[in-house]
């Protein structure tokens, strides 16, 4: 086994992290999440007198029990950690660090299915108006919210957008999703107009990092995920009617649900959102069907 590097990470975790970033093209956020989960597992194994090399299915199952009872992890958090451990040990087997995969039969808890939460057409319009009034940089914030609503992009895709990814001539926006997968979505005429207005006031001081990133913070640096979440909450607080728990991801749900209500087909929405499986997109049909049932109940003969 290699000596522990200066980063303090176990060398196998460090090798796995590099594999995720370089070979699989995962985002730094994903790699960091896997690293945190595996560091927690390493600490638990040490407490149990074990390590990555000697861990067996029993001690890994004990780790899941520990997550549930001592750390109060819910189903989704435990399922994510199971996925991480399985992927990690598959990597260790391929690299020859361990002979057998003790996580092969590790069972993830069933995660309850939740209907996506989204805004109505009126609420989405009100949020766009709030961005013009309550944002720290109104033109930018209006453009940011419009991009989330018109493209259905993830926050990481929004903050990763570069100037060259927006083609006004080609009427398209290029997005890089999970695993660096590329997709191209149409540039709505209203979004094109809003982005042109933003580009007229966009400023990037000399020497600023990542100058090609489209959305900038007040200091001229690239806007971060945390910055986006902060701005969305600030805008939501300025609305006359409260929108509790509003997030950028709910704007992605909003775009998908409103398109479905306007008779867009599931395959098209799947393509726009970058879902690997249409089953993920199908969640939105339950929302629309429920709303239709509510309307039908109003009938009286």
TrEMBL record:
Q: Which GO terms describe its biological process?
A: DNA integration; DNA recombination
Q: In this protein, which residues make up the domain named Tyr recombinase?
A: 114-297
**Keywords for this protein:** DNA integration, DNA recombination, DNA-binding
Q: Which terms in the Gene Ontology molecular function aspect does this entry carry?
A: DNA binding
Q: Please verify whether the record's keywords include Disulfide bond.
A: no
| Core-binding (CB) domain segment(s) | 7-93
- Transmembrane segment boundaries: none
PANTHER family per the UniProt record, alphabetical = PHAGE INTEGRASE-RELATED (PTHR30349), TYROSINE RECOMBINASE XERC (PTHR30349:SF81)
Q: What's the protein called, per UniProt?
A: Tyrosine recombinase XerD
């Amino acid at each position: 086994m290699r000596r522990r590097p200066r980063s303090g990470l176990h060398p196998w975790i460090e090798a796995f992290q590099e594999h995720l970033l370089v070979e699989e093209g995962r985002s730094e956020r994903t790699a960091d999440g896997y690293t945190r989960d595996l560091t927690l597992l390493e600490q638990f194994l040490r407490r149990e007198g074990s390590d990555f090399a000697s861990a067996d299915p029993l001690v890994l199952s004990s780790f899941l029990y520990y997550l549930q009872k001592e750390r109060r992890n819910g189903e989704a958090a435990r399922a994510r950690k199971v996925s991480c451990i399985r992927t990690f040990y598959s990597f260790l087997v391929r690299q020859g660090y361990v002979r057998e995969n003790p996580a092969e039969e590790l069972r993830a808890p069933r995660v309850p299915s939740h209907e996506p939460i989204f805004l109505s057409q009126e609420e989405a319009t009100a949020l766009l108006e709030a961005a013009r009034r309550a944002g720290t940089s109104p033109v930018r914030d209006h453009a940011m919210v419009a991009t989330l609503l018109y493209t259905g992009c993830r926050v990481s895709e929004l903050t990763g957008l570069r100037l060259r990814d927006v083609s006004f001539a080609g009427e398209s926006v290029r997005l890089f999703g999970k695993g660096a997968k590329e997709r191209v979505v149409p540039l709505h005429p209203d979004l094109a107009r809003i982005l042109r207005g933003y580009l007229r006031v966009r400023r990037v001081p000399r020497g600023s990092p990542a100058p090609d990133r489209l959305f900038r913070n007040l200091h001229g640096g690239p806007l971060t995920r945390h910055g986006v979440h902060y701005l969305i909450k600030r805008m939501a607080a300025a609305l006359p009617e409260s929108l509790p728990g509003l997030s950028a991801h709910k704007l992605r749900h909003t775009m998908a649900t409103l398109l479905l209500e306007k008779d867009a087909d599931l395959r098209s929405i799947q393509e726009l959102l970058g879902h690997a499986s249409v089953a993920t997109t199908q969640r939105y049909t339950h929302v629309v069907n429920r709303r239709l049932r509510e309307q039908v109940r109003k009938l009286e003969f």
